[in-house]
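User: Need the bound-state model for heme C:
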Amino acid sequence: MLKRRLPALCLMWSLPVFAELNPQLLADNCLTCHQDHSASERDIPLLAGLPAQKIQQDLLDFKYGRKSATLMPRIAKGFSDDDLRLIADYLARD
Ligand code: HEC
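Assistant: Bound-state model below.
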């Protein structure tokens, strides 16, 4: 009986993990532009190797208009400050 219920129990336990904010899901979006190998040819800076603190500071500056740019202010405004910190930490981990 327990054996039969085990898959269902496992599923229930794993659900809260998916419900939590997953930084990878947020950051994958960024990499469509920033990880492309031809990105440097299109004037999109590569983020690889940048420290989390610089990424986070840039994102906050874009969001609050302290740093002018074409695309990034619009993107950064779509995230809370906490999201931006999570994304910066995640991207700097690679
Ligand atoms: C549609 C393409 C695109 C996406 C998606 C995108 N970016 Fe950018 N990013 C740019 C461009 C272009 C710049 C150069 C500044 C500008 O013109 O907006 C830039 C600049 C930056 C910079 C400044 C880097 C430096 O050294 O000057 C950071 C940090 C950054 N992006 C982080 C992110 C993060 C984090 C995400 C995801 C939340 C993201 N970007 C999503 C195109 C993109």
